[in-house]
Structures are given as C-alpha cells and as structure tokens.
Design goal:
Blueprint (H helix, E strand, L loop, with lengths): L1 H7 L9 E3 L2 E3 L4 E6 L2 E7 L8 E5 L1 H13 L3 E5 L2 E5 L2 E2 L4 E5 L3 E5 L38 E4 L2 E6 L3 E3 L21 E6 L2 E6 L2 E3 L4 E6 L2 E6 L2 E3 L3 E6 L2 E6 L2 E3 L6 E5 L9 E7 L2 E3 L27 E7 L3 E12 L4 E5 L4 E13 L6 E5 L13 E15 L7 E4 L6 E13 L5 H4 L24 E18 L8 E15 L9 E12 L8 E3 L1
Parallel strand pairs: 4-6, 5-7, 6-9, 7-10, 8-11, 9-12, 10-13, 11-14, 12-15, 13-16, 14-17, 15-18, 16-19, 17-20, 18-21, 19-22, 20-23, 21-24, 22-25, 23-26, 24-27, 25-27, 26-28, 27-29, 28-30, 29-31, 30-32, 31-33, 32-34, 33-34, 34-35, 35-36, 36-37
Antiparallel strand pairs: 1-2, 3-4
C-alpha cells in the first residue's frame, strides 16, 4: 500500500481514456495503476472543472468527480496542490478522497443572511422526533463541508488540509449554525461502515472537525486537528481505532466518545481503542499546525478544554474501551460520564502523562440528567482500571488527583487505580474542607459543577469497591484540606499510598465509610479523621 501511495501521484490526471457508466470521461480524468493485484482508478478534480484557486467554488466539479468514480464501481478522487473552495461535498460508497501535499479543501463562506435555495451548504435534514435529546450539531449531518450517509468502503486520505474557515462553530457567534444554507461540521458520517480517515489535517473545523454517528469499522489515524470546537466526536460507533492523532481544541473536547439518541434508538459506543494520541488546549488556534506553538496568555479566558472524554451524551452507553499511551497538555483531564440512563463499563486507561491540567485529572461521574425518552432507569458506571498515569502541575481546586461521584442509591462500582503520580500546585483552604457539595444529580457533568472540593487529592462519594495501590500524591504548596475525602463508600483499599510530606490536614476525612482497609500508607499516623 505504501508503494502505491508514493507512486500514484505520478499519473494523477494522466493518460487512460475511459467511459464511466455511459458518461464520457476526458482522457485526463481517469488513470489506472497496477501493483501486483492492486488496481486503482484515479479521478483528478481539475479535469472535472475544479479551479483550485481558492476563489472559484469547486463544489460542482468535486461532486462530479466523486459521482464518476462511484458509477465506475469505485476509485480515488485526487486533489492536486491548490485550494479548492467548496460547499457540501457528498461522499459515495467505494470512493476515496486523496489530498496531495499542498492541497486544501476550503469551506466557503456564506453571507450572513444565508439562503433557502440550496445554493450553499446542503440543508440540515430533519431528525424528528429525536431532536430534543441532543444539541443541534448532533442532530444533522448533511449541513457539512464533507458528508456521507448509509455508505460503505469510504476513505479520506493524504497529507493535505481541510480548512473549515466558512463553517459555523455553533453557539452564539454569527452566522448561526441554524442559518439557512450554513454548514457547521468539516466531516460528518452517519450509518456507515468500513471508513478510513488518515494522514490529513483539519484547521478550524466548525462545531465538529469530525462527527461519526453509527459508524462501524472506523479507523482514524495520524490526523492533526487544530480547531475552534470539538476535534472529533465518535457517537454510537462500534469497532473504532483512533491512533497517532494530535488535537488542539481549546474551546471544547479533543477526542470525545458519545452515545446519543440521534439515531432514534439507544446504541452503545463499544470496542474502541485510543492510542498514541496528543490532546491539548494550551495553544492559540492554528499554532499547532503552523509550528509556532503560541500559548494562550495567562489572563486568557479560553477554557482550554482539549481532553479525552466519554459523554456527555450517554443514552446508549460505553463498553470495552482502552485508552493507552496518550499525552495531555494544558487541558482538562479524563472525563468518564454517564448521565442519561446507560452503562459505562469495562474501561482501561494506561500509560498516560498529563501536564498543566486545568481541572481534575480523573473525573468519573454517574448522574441522572436523563436527557432522552421517559421511563429509562438510572445507568451504571463500573469496572474501570486506571494505571501508569503521571500528572504534573494540575491547577484547579476541584481535586488534585481525582473526582469520583455517583449518586445516592446508584454507586460507581469496581474501580482500581495503580501506579499513579499526581502532582498538584496546592491552594485549598480549610474553609472548603468542611463543605459537603450537593449531589446535583441532574446537572450537566463537569468537574467545576461542585465548586471547590473538600479534599485536596481524591473526592470519592457514592462508590462501592475502590482500590488504590502504589499511588503518590505531591503538592507544590500547602493545602489545608484532607487528602482523601470520602462519603458513602462501601469497600475501600489503600496500599502503598504516599501523601505530601508537609501535610497540614488529615489524610482521610471519612463519612459513612464501611469495609475500609489501609496498608503501608505514608504519613498516616495522627492524620486520620473519621466521622
């Protein structure tokens, strides 16, 4: 395959004349190359009328090339170096888009008033009666720069760029995503299978750089995404491989798994691996891609979210997920959330480094927002293994290591944390150590939802069966709160846990805790508060 990729540029737009499904194709529009048994048919978008000058709108030419490839049984649509301004590009089965080095697909701009004539981006299709169960962006796919529905064997490949300059990022900014003729996603896929997204970059991707809903056998590899909302959302998908990606998404999540009700039924996101990825919110838009790496000023109000997350949409649940060998920098920590009545279970997180986390490094939340059809019971969160994590210089007062909170009658179950080093700036006061935060079970889940926490390290509430082993917590400065604040916990084991040397508060503050065991815990003597 690598030989094919290197060599086929030589003939893109070249030599073989042909006929595609009865439509005459110019001699330069179609080319074939064979390597052993591998044969590919190439379609150069310039031959179908694309200008690639960044001024003319190439939507019609690009879609003609895709149609020709599809009607011939499949092939590769090639974008040579140039800037191809376009509105909606419609993918088809058995067709790949290949962006050569120097090629940019540019989301064209829409006048503020929009258009109801279909002259711009494709209309946002109706998703009634399910539209109230997730936000606008999750309910529509056609209003995108590149979209496909009910497809198979689709790829977007190559070292080029997708620039969502003309897309709405959602929210209050103009033009709104709801403006007629407006687009708000770079790539949107619905009910597809056998999809490969590889090697390209996305700049300023709109509300979603990638939105994949109900997509099975999905590979996302070696992408660079530098964007103004979510990097990639993988929703109700099965058998997904996300690897070797870099995402700078200061305003929203970097890599986000979801399981919404957008398909009209609850469908789990399952059998997912996320590996060898870098997520951050620390850098100004575009500065990761252009190599300038401009950090946000210290007084910037940019949220710097940029994290890996399961949720918030969680109607179908999450199962069998492994996250390994990833780097977080200047962004939020892990968030595992189920709040809409589904199961989040069998998750393994290992081999992670975090630096300058802007909220708690580990956030596990079981709630009952229940945004979905009535009558669904509260979900569950269980069997989570976290190991080999190093977090340095986390900064918030939401918990220097972790915030774990179920709700009364619905505990989070079966948690194991091993081989952690969690370093925190330290700044909590004794005043907050006496506060028991409200459960707020129907509230949108974020580490900030409870305010400053009463524990400096781990806040653990409504949990059954939790174990910590070979864990070291370190504070840069003094913190007047207990290291572990625990309430309504049944079954807790602490083995070889090392707390800050100059501790000025109890190690434990225990409230309705049963079956509690400690072994080889540093600094425990005279530092226990049990209530």
């Amino acid at each position: 395959m690598n030989i094919f990729r290197r060599e086929f540029f030589k003939i893109a737009g070249g030599g073989l004349a042909g006929t595609v499904a009865g439509n005459a194709v110019p001699a330069s529009a179609q080319a074939q190359q064979t390597h052993g048994s591998l044969t590919s048919t190439l379609y150069d978008v310039r031959t179908f009328g694309a200008k690639g000058n960044g001024i003319a709108n190439d939507k019609t030419a690009i879609n003609r090339a895709i149609q020709a490839a599809s009607e011939s049984g499949g092939g590769t649509v090639v974008f040579p170096a140039g800037t191809y301004a376009s509105f909606s590009i419609r993918l088809r089965s058995n067709v790949a888009l290949y962006l050569e080095q120097g090629a940019t697909i540019l989301a064209a701009s829409v006048p503020d008033g929009g258009s109801t004539t279909g002259a711009y981006y494709d209309a946002a299709e109706s998703n009634e009666p399910w539209e109230n169960y997730q936000d606008y962006g999750h309910n529509h796919w056609h209003n995108s720069l590149i979209w496909g529905e009910d497809l198979q064997n689709v790829s977007i490949l190559g070292p080029g760029l997708i620039w969502g300059k003309g897309l709405s990022r959602g929210g209050k900014e103009l033009p709104h995503a709801e403006t007629p003729g407006m687009g708000n996603k770079s790539i949107a896929l619905k009910n597809c299978h056998n999809v490969i997204l590889r090697d390209f970059s996305i700049l300023q991707g709109g509300h979603f750089g990638i939105l994949a809903t109900g997509v099975d056998n999905l590979t996302i590899d070696n992408l660079k995404i530098d964007t103004n909302r979510d990097g990639m959302d993988v929703d109700c998908c099965r058998n997904v491989r996300i690897s070797n990606c870099s995402v700078n998404s200061p305003w929203d999540d970097g890599i986000c798994l979801k399981s919404s009700f957008a398909l009209g039924h609850a469908r789990a996101t399952e059998n997912v691996t996320i590996s060898n990825c870098y997520v951050t919110g620390a850098y100004e838009l575009g500065s990761m891609l252009d190599g300038t790496w401009k950090r946000w000023p210290a007084d910037s109000k940019t949220p710097r979210t940029g994290r890996i997350k399961c949720g918030t949409e969680s109607n179908g649940g999450f199962k069998n997920i492994t996250i390994a060998n990833c780097v977080f920098e200047g962004c939020g920590g892990f968030a595992l959330e189920t709040v809409d009545g589904a199961t989040l279970e069998d998750i393994t997180i290992t081999g992670i480094t975090m630096r300058d986390c802007v909220n708690t490094p580990l956030f596990l939340r079981l709630g009952s927002r229940m945004r979905g059809p009535a009558g669904v019971p509260v979900g569950s969160l269980k069997r989570i293994l976290v190991s080999n994590v190093s977090s340095y210089n986390s900064s918030s007062t939401y918990g220097g290591a972790g915030l774990i909170s179920g709700i009364t009658g619905h505990p989070i179950e079966d948690l194991q944390f091993a081989n952690l080093y969690m370093q925190y700036r330290g700044q909590g006061t004794g005043r907050t150590s006496a506060v028991a935060p409200p459960e707020d079970e129907q509230k949108y889940p974020e580490p900030s939802m409870f305010g400053a926490m009463p524990g400096s390290g781990f806040f653990i509430r409504n949990v059954k069966n939790i174990a910590l082993s070979n864990v070291e917590l370190s504070w840069q400065g003094e913190d007047a709160r207990p290291v572990f604040w625990m309430q309504n916990v049944d079954g807790a084991e602490f083995f070889r846990v090392k707390t800050p040397k100059r501790i000025i508060a109890p190690v434990f503050s225990l409230h309705q805790v049963e079956d509690f065991h400690v072994m080889e815990l540093h600094n425990l003597k005279d530092c226990v508060s049990i209530k």
